[in-house]
Prior knowledge:
By secondary structure, this protein is mainly beta. The chain has one helix and 20 strands.
Amino acid sequence: MQSxxxxxxxDDKNQLLWTSxxxxxxxNCFANLQTDGNLVIHNDxxxxxxxxxxxxxxxxxxxSDITMATLVLLSAALLLxxxxxxxxxxxxxxxxxxxxxxxxxxxGGYTFIMQSDCNxxxxDDQNQALWTSxxxxxxxNCFANLQTDGNLVINNDxxxxxxxTNTAGEEDQYILFLHHxxxxxxxxxxxxxxxxxxxxTNRKIAMVTNN
Length: 211
């Protein structure tokens, strides 16, 4: 959020990738991601000078045993995670990525691991299971894959599907995110800048919703 009231996305060479058209529209401007999913820029008179026009439902709901958020504000940490490669984001699984046997996501004291017994398990910092896929013994060398349709699927060594979140939807750039409080969410973007209309590289801004 620049001092000229522009909200700007720069790359690692300080080259401008995207900017809000708000230059000179006020002083001491600030950007607020509202609980309805709308990103809004206010000036010093508290006037709205720009928004992403993504307002929606702010209620959270649970689907099966994995929490799915209808509209969620992601912190700056998630924004950084979205712009980092998968190998540098230990609490994020991107669409198309796989957790193979013994691989895991970690955040704080929580671990989301694909065990050798074919169970996908969420453990706390005491190694106590908070949630399990209940797929123990259903195969060897099992792996969990976040599909590009938003469905998290466990396959065994015969490539049989032994469990899924049943969250398949439209093809998109979904992510699975392990939060610091132990909740696991699957998200998809509702607002992307820059996009193809900007004639620039497609990168996600951290505003997401479930399918």
